[in-house]
C-alpha cells in the first residue's frame, strides 16, 4: 500500500526566511510525485510533477526535488502570499489514483 | 493548463433535500473524474472514481445510494447528495484526470463546493 507522510504539519516563517517542506513516500513503482497548493476554501492547484530521482522543477520561489524516498519543496525568500497548505501525492504503477499526504500548512508573516 | 470548474461554489439547503453538484473539464476531455470530501484542516478524502459511461467506483464506507454520481459525458460529472443531513455538510471537490506531455496521469482540481445543510 502506498504511503505518503508530510512534515512538518504546520510551519510559520517570517517573510524572506527560506525553508523546506518534506514529503516521504513508499510506493511500488513510482509513476509520478505531485505537489499541489491549496488556499482556504479552494480546490488544490497543481504545481509540479516529478518523475524520477534527481529531478528538480522550479516555479517562482518554489523548487521541488525528488529522491527515491522523499521529495522536498524548497521555498526561497517566501512572501505572505505563499501562505497556503501544500499537498504532496504519489501515483504508483498499480493504480492511477494517487495517494495524498495530509499536507503542510504554511504561514508566512510579513 | 487543464481547467476544471464546479457549480455551485456554495449551497445551503434544508435537511432532507437533495443537492446536485456539477464538475466540468473545460478545455480537455476527462474519461475519469474523482470526487473528494474535505473536512476543516483535514486532507482530501476520496469518495468515488467516476468513469464516463459506466458506474462509479465508491471507496469503502461511502454510501452509493446517498452520494449518486453520474458521468454522462467526457466533460461532465455530477454528484447528487440525496436526502442531505447536517452531517453531510462539508467541502466537496472534484478532479479530472488528464495526461501530461509525457503521458503521466495528473489530476486537476475544481474550486470546490461548500455544502451547508441546516
Shape of chain B: globular
Count of helical stretches of chain B: 0
Topology, number of strands of chain B: 11
Structural class of chain B: mainly beta
Order of helices and strands of chain B: EEEEEEEEEEE
Helix-strand string of chain A: EEEEEEEEEEE
Tell me the helix content of chain A: under 10%
Q: How would a textbook summarize the main sheet of chain A?
A: 6 strands, mixed
Q: Which term fits the overall shape of chain A?
A: globular
Identify low-pLDDT runs of chain A: none
Low-confidence stretches of chain B: none
| Mean pLDDT across all amino acids of chain B | 91
Strand content of chain B: over 45%
Mean pLDDT of chain A, to the nearest integer, reads 94
How far is the first residue's CA from the last residue's CA of chain A?
Answer: 41 Å
Q: Return the structural class of chain A.
A: mainly beta
Oligomer: heterodimer
Radius of gyration of chain A: 13 Å
Question: What does this entry look like structurally?
Answer:
The complex is a heterodimer of chains A (110) and B (118). With 110 residues, chain A is mainly β. Helix content of chain A is 0%, strand content 63%. Chain A is built from no helices and eleven strands. Chain A has strands at residues 3-7, 10-14, 19-26, 30-38, 45-50, 56-59, 62-66, 70-75, 84-92, 95-100, 104-109. In chain A, strands 2, 4, 5, 9, 10 and 11 form a six-stranded mixed beta sheet that branches. A five-stranded antiparallel beta sheet of chain A has the order 1-3-8-7-6, with no helix packed on it. In chain A, strand 6 and strand 7 (62-66) form a beta hairpin. The model of chain A has no long low-confidence stretch (mean pLDDT 94). By secondary structure, chain B is mainly β. Chain B is built from no helices and eleven strands. Chain B has strands at residues 4-7, 10-13, 19-25, 32-38, 45-51, 57-58, 67-73, 76-81, 90-99, 105-109, 113-117. In chain B, the strands form two sheets. In chain B, strands 2, 4, 5, 6, 9, 10 and 11 form a seven-stranded mixed beta sheet that branches. A four-stranded antiparallel beta sheet of chain B has the order 1-3-8-7, with no helix packed on it. Chains A and B meet through strand 4, strand 5, strand 9 and strand 10 of A and strand 9 and strand 10 of B.
Amino acid at each position: 500500500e502506498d504511503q505518503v507522510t508530510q512534515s512538518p504539519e504546520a510551519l510559520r516563517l517570517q517573510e524572506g526566511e527560506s525553508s523546506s517542506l518534506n514529503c516521504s513516500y513508499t510506493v511500488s513503482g513510482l509513476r509520478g510525485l505531485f505537489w499541489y497548493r491549496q488556499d482556504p476554501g479552494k480546490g488544490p492547484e497543481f504545481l509540479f510533477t516529478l518523475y524520477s530521482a534527481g529531478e528538480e522543477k522550479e516555479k517562482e520561489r518554489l523548487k521541488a526535488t525528488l529522491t527515491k524516498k522523499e521529495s522536498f519543496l524548497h521555498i526561497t525568500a517566501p512572501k505572505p502570499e505563499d501562505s497556503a497548505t501544500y499537498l504532496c501525492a504519489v501515483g504508483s504503477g498499480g493504480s492511477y489514483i494517487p495517494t495524498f499526504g495530509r499536507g503542510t500548512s504554511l504561514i508566512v508573516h510579513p | 493548463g487543464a481547467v476544471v470548474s464546479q457549480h455551485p461554489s456554495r449551497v445551503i439547503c434544508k435537511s432532507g433535500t437533495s443537492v446536485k453538484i456539477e464538475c466540468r473539464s473545460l478545455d480537455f476531455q476527462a474519461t475519469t473524474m474523482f470526487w473528494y470530501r474535505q473536512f476543516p484542516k483535514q486532507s482530501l478524502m476520496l469518495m468515488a472514481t467516476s468513469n464516463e459511461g459506466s458506474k462509479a467506483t465508491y471507496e469503502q464506507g461511502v454510501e452509493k445510494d446517498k452520494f449518486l454520481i453520474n458521468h454522462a459525458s467526457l466533460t461532465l460529472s455530477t454528484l447528487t447528495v440525496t436526502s442531505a443531513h447536517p452531517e453531510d455538510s462539508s467541502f466537496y471537490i472534484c478532479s479530472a484526470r488528464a495526461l501530461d506531455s509525457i503521458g503521466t496521469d495528473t489530476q486537476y482540481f475544481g474550486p470546490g463546493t461548500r455544502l451547508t445543510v441546516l
